[in-house]
Amino acid sequence: MNRGHLIPVERLRAAVNDLMLGFGSEPREVALVTDNLLQANLTGHDSHGIGMLPRYANAFLEGGLRPNAHALTKLDSGTLLALDGQAGFGQVIGHEAMELGIARAQAHGSCIMALANAHHLCRIGAWAEMAVVAGLVSVHFVNVISRPMVAPWGGRDARFGTNPFAVGIPVPGREPVILDMATSVIAQGKTRVAHNKGERLAPGQMIDNFGEPTTDPKFGVVEPLGALRTFGEHKGFGLALVCELLGGAVAGALTAHQPGDGKQRVLNGMLTMLFDPNRLGDGAVFGGEMQAFLDWVQASPPEAGLSRVQVAGDPERASRARRSAEGIPVDDNTWKELLAAAAKLGRDPARVASLAGVAA
Ligand SMILES: NC(=O)c1ccc[n+]([C@@H]2O[C@H](COP(=O)([O-])OP(=O)(O)OC[C@H]3O[C@@H](n4cnc5c(N)ncnc54)[C@H](O)[C@@H]3O)[C@@H](O)[C@H]2O)c1
Relative to the CA of 313, which of 109, 138, 167, 306 has its CA 20 to 30 Å away? Predict the structure, then answer.
C-alpha cells in the first residue's frame, strides 16, 4: 500500500467543508454532504467517503450534478410518495426524501417512497439508519445509472450497476440490524480504493475486458474496463435484477440499457418501503424473538482468528468507534486527487491541506 495520512475527523471535516464551497453549495448542503461522506469513511466504507469528491467535482463541471437542488414531490397520496431528485446531491435529496417518508410512516404506519433521479445516494445504510432512529423498519432497492459495471450471471460483460440493497431493523434493547450491500461481489468504489493503494482484488470478483477472470482492480477504474461479478452467483444476480426493476424502472423511471456515455455523474433511483413494526402486532413479543434469534446466532462458536460472530451493522459500528478515536486513514493517491478536485473547483489546495493538518 502507498503512504497515507491519518486525519482527525474534525480536521478532515474542516477541509472538506472548504472544498465543498467550490460547488457553490448552501451551508446546509455543505454540512449534509460533508457529514455523509465522513460517516462513510468512519463506518469503514472508504469507497463511499471523501474519495467520491473528485468524481462529484467532474460531474458538477460537466453539468451532471446540480448543487442546491431539492427533492420535488411528483405524487402524494398519503402512504405513496413519488419524488424527483433533480440530479441534486444525493446526500441532500436522500435526506429530504427520508424525512418525508419517515413522517408519513409515523402518521399512517407505513409508506412506500419512490425516489427518481437523485445524484449518488452514497452509502444506502445511512438512510436505513435514519429510519431506525425513528423506530421504523426500512427496505431499500436501488439502481445505479452510470456506466454499466457488473456482469449478469452467465454473461461476459457489464450490463448494469452495483445496485445496492439495504434493510434497517430497530431491535429493542440492542443495536439495530443494518444490512447494507452492493449486489456486486464488492462495491465499485472498492476497485478504485484498491487501485489507488496498489493492491490486488481477491480472485472471483472481476473479469477483464475479454470476460476473463482477473484480480487487477484497474479493470474497474481505467480503460479498457472489465466487469464486477454479482455476489452469490445467480442469486445475487436475481437481487440486482430486482433492484433495477424496482429502484430503476418503478421508482427511477430510468434503467441501465446502454453503454456508458463517458460522463462522471451517477444517478440513483431508490424504492423505499418504511413501516412501524409496533403497528403490526405486539412489539414486546417480536422484540423478544429478535433478541432471542440474534443471541442464538451470535452464540455460534467463532471460526479460528475471530473473536465472535457479527451481524449486519456490527462491522460499521466497530469501525466508527475506532476511527472516531484514531482518525480517518486517507491514502496518498486519494489525497492528491482530492486536492486536485479542490483546485478544479476554484478552492486553494494549500488551504484545504492546512485545514486537514497535512503538510503540502
Ligand atoms: N449509491 C450507490 O450507487 C451504491 C452502489 C453500491 C454500493 N453502495 C454502498 O457501498 C457500501 C459498501 O457495500 P459492500 O457490499 O461493499 O458492503 P460490505 O460487503 O462491506 O458489507 C455488506 C453487509 O454485510 C455486513 N457484514 C460485513 N462483514 C460482516 C461479517 N463479517 N459478519 C456479518 N456481517 C458482515 C455489513 O454490516 C453490511 O451490512 C454500502 O454502504 C452500499 O450502500 C452504494
Answer: 109
